[in-house]
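Hey, weird one. I pasted the Outer membrane efflux protein sequence into the form twice and got a warning about non-standard characters only the second time. First submission, copied straight from the form history:
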Amino acid sequence: MKIKYWSTTCLLIATSVFGFAQEKKHLELEEVIHLAATQSSNAKLWDAQVNTSRLKYEEAKDSRLPDSKISGTYLAMNSPTVDLKISMGSGDGPNISTNQLFIGQLAINMPLYTGGKIKNGIKSAQDSWKAAEFETLAAKENLSINAVHLYIGLYQAQQTADLIAENIKKAEQQVVDLKSMEQNGIIARNDLLKAELQLSNFKVAHQEALKNANVINYQLNTLLGLDENTIIDKINLVGITPFDESLAQDSTERNEIKSLRSQKDVAQDQLNISRSAYHPTLFATGGYAALHIQNLVTVTNAANIGLGLSYDIGSLYKNKKKIRVAQQQLSSIDDNIALVNDKIKNQINEAKENVSLAKKKNGLYAEALAQSNENYRIVKDKYDNGVADTDDLLEADVQQLQSKINLAIGEATLIEKYYDLLLATGHLNIK
């Protein structure tokens, strides 16, 4: 008796632990899209890259600030021979012995004119930041649409498993009825075996559907940044708008194109920076110096202020190739924009065709389900009256089940293709 109680206690504890380990979670489709764009590992990586670009922009703005440098030098020397040329009066010059030297300097340079190098450098960093933001949005949209595909796939697997499980109950009752009929000699044993074989096939298909649901559930957890043991609760797609006709005609500029346009701005900024090398650099300069030579001289309060001008003569013959490289980059980006635009047009056209096909198939699936239901009713009536055989009944049952599965999958596919169209036309909302 104690062993029995102990086994029951262990079972309850194990069940409790398992229940805590596998948390059930209900997610709406919009939540899935948002989680993929914010909580997935890839989304966080893209956010980090955007933040890096922002910090580089902040760093570039510091180039407008003056350069400040302070230095100090202490030197120990031997006792050099000092020959002062300054007249010290009559008699021999002083015998100066020194072996230490100290120099202190403070220098400040403030750029006044750089030919646009600083301004364009800051703008280049800002445009790079914008390009990273748009590129990140495009990447997150792709992450979100992948999550939509997994979410729809999970729904289809769940629906398939549920419909097969429902049919298994009917098939089990059918086997019970046929077994009784076989025992009473109404039907041949072969008919009973056919029904049992179909029941076994249904059970195999059910296990396959459950496996598919578990695999997709795990993949969705990984993508959304959820605990791997989380079980996505039964999905309900009721209430989701399957199609908005206006999106078939309306499209907005995709984030991929926006990113490329920002990259083009960066290339233009780099071209302007290269051209700025042909201009001189003007800067304000100021500083302070102190000098002390032991037993010889001490200089303090040596402040200075003025203007400086520099010009890199080598840029006259070195900079031409840099400008050509920058111009070629601009041209390449234009070609890439045209290529991506063509690709997007193809995606939009394909997405529209997929939505149209999914709608037509759904209508046909609905008709097929009505036909299979009526067919099963007629065959069942004939079977009960001894007109149809077991093969006819089992075949009608399979056709009815397949029609139910096709319609459930078709309805989900229409929603999936609708979100593909949202992505293609630039209307997918990931916020």
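That's the output from the first submission. The warning seems to come from a hidden character in my clipboard, not from the data itself. The radius of gyration is 40 Å.
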